[in-house]
Amino acid sequence: MNVILQNQILAVIALESTSVGGGAPIFFASDREELEQLSFLLEKILDGMAHQLNPDTMIIVRH
């Protein structure tokens, strides 16, 4: 049986731990370059799309 999540936040990538929370997996980056690298890597692994919420926070979403 295949289960496919749609319209879900699959992951959150942030620079500061105090700016995010919730039920999705959260990854913390040490700088903006690492934030982008993690976002694009997770985008490919999770088969989702990366969206920038603000300069310090990205989410991976499956539409």
Please tell me about this protein's structure.
InterPro entries: YpzH (IPR054055). With 63 residues, the chain is an alpha+beta fold. The chain is built from 1 helix and 4 strands. A hairpin with a 2-residue loop joins β3 and β4. The longest helix has 14 residues.
Short description:
By secondary structure, this protein is an alpha+beta fold. It has one helix at residues 32-45, and strands at residues 8-14, 26-28, 49-54, 57-62.
Topology diagram in text:
Layout: E1 8-14, E2 26-28, H1 32-45, E3 49-54, E4 57-62
Parallel strand pairs: 1-2
Antiparallel strand pairs: 1-4, 3-4
Distance between the termini: 20 Å
Share of helix, binned: 10-25%
The Cα radius of gyration reads: 11 Å
Sum up the overall morphology in one term.
globular
Can you count the beta strands? 4
Mean of all residue-level pLDDT scores: 92
Number of helices: 1
Structural class: alpha+beta
Pfam families: YIEGIA_cap
Features:
four-stranded mixed β-sheet, globular, 63 residues, alpha+beta
